[in-house]
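User: Structure with protoporphyrin IX containing FE, tokens only please.
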Amino acid sequence: MELPGGVVVWAITHHDTLQALLADPRVGKNPQLWTTFREGRLPYGWPLLNFVAVPGMVTADGEDHKRLRGLLSQAFTPRRIAALTPTVEARTLTLLDAVAEVAERQGEFDLREHFAYPLPIQVIGELFGLAPDQHDDLHALSETLVSSAATPEAAIAAQRDLNALLASVVAAKRAEPGDDLTTDLIAAREAGLDLDRQRLSEAELVGTLLLMLIAGHETTLNLITNAVRALFAHPDQLRLVLDGAQPWSAVVEETLRHDSPVGQFPLRYATEDLEVGDVVIRRGEALLASYAAAGRDAGHYPDADRFDLARQPARHLSFGHGPHFCLGSGLARLEAETALRHLFGRFPGLAPAAGEQPEPIRSFVSNSVRTLRVTVRGATGNDGAPACGGDGSGHPVT
Ligand code: HEM
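Assistant:
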């Protein structure tokens, strides 16, 4: 398929093929493996350049990948994620109080802007020690970065401003270390400066921050938004959850499959000629992981377009697969389940606002809608949802 700027790649849209290629050692993520990149043939201001070239785990292979991922993996273990439950609960309840006020004043509110966005940005921002007044700048810049509608000039400016923002975060934490993951990354870099093998370059430090902060909020924002839309469109499925016949975790997993928050993720490269079905992907050619398409692959999922909480098995590829499997899947699940449980606990009559016909985000990566205006007929005034992950599903948070 053709990406913006006329760049040609192989889109991998079938579930089983995608699963196999994501774990295939003959497929790498270092952009130097890509002939088009190596030969400098990408167009000026190519909007996806950042995904392809950001220095960090997402563009690294083998030992390099292990080194970069290892720096953060300890912070996202099931135990560490479970310990975040009270924070996620508290942020969720505070946000719901705020949206209840907006709803009362205006009769409706944009659920994406006032609830689905602030929850994950607050949580990831806090983990990495961002000042709250940096959240909106970060979000605005990252929206440009994932946009397929940005002009080359806008894409380059967003990249520059984002790097400047993150460099200022690093400088502030160097001057005044905190109890946060940015401080930990700086310490890892400084501890490794004499040890060539463990060294984290300054560019990798900023690249890792960029990856974590964007991946840590844009995706979960889409997941919460997409789940609410799916429940609006399938009131029978919502009823199953409200009656306790299905857990909130099933809503999260089925949304991930049915409407993957990451539509497609650029890019991977063949390190040798690969026979895939009846085509040959040549060494040096690029592959695009098409997660949204794979989630609707009728060859893998019976009646793939149906949103069905009872689907068995509920497995999907929407957090990736293989060595680059999403580092934040446990956090995303915790945030989305908590958000949905409390949202519908507080506002059982939640419904789309009259005339709301949301437009899709114009992005190659991010899959959701730009707004989701809702009304809250029959709010309970307090939250009848069970506390702390108690949806009875027993679903693990990783
Ligand atoms: C609904 C929420 C999320 C979805 C759907 C999602 C999806 C994905 C996918 C599909 C990948 C694989 C990309 C590829 O190589 O093709 C990935 C990787 C990654 N995700 Fe997530 N993600 C989510 C939330 C998060 C959160 C909350 C964080 C951080 C706290 C995070 C951090 C990462 C990182 C660091 C990687 C790269 C891992 C590596 O290259 O080894 N993600 N995610």
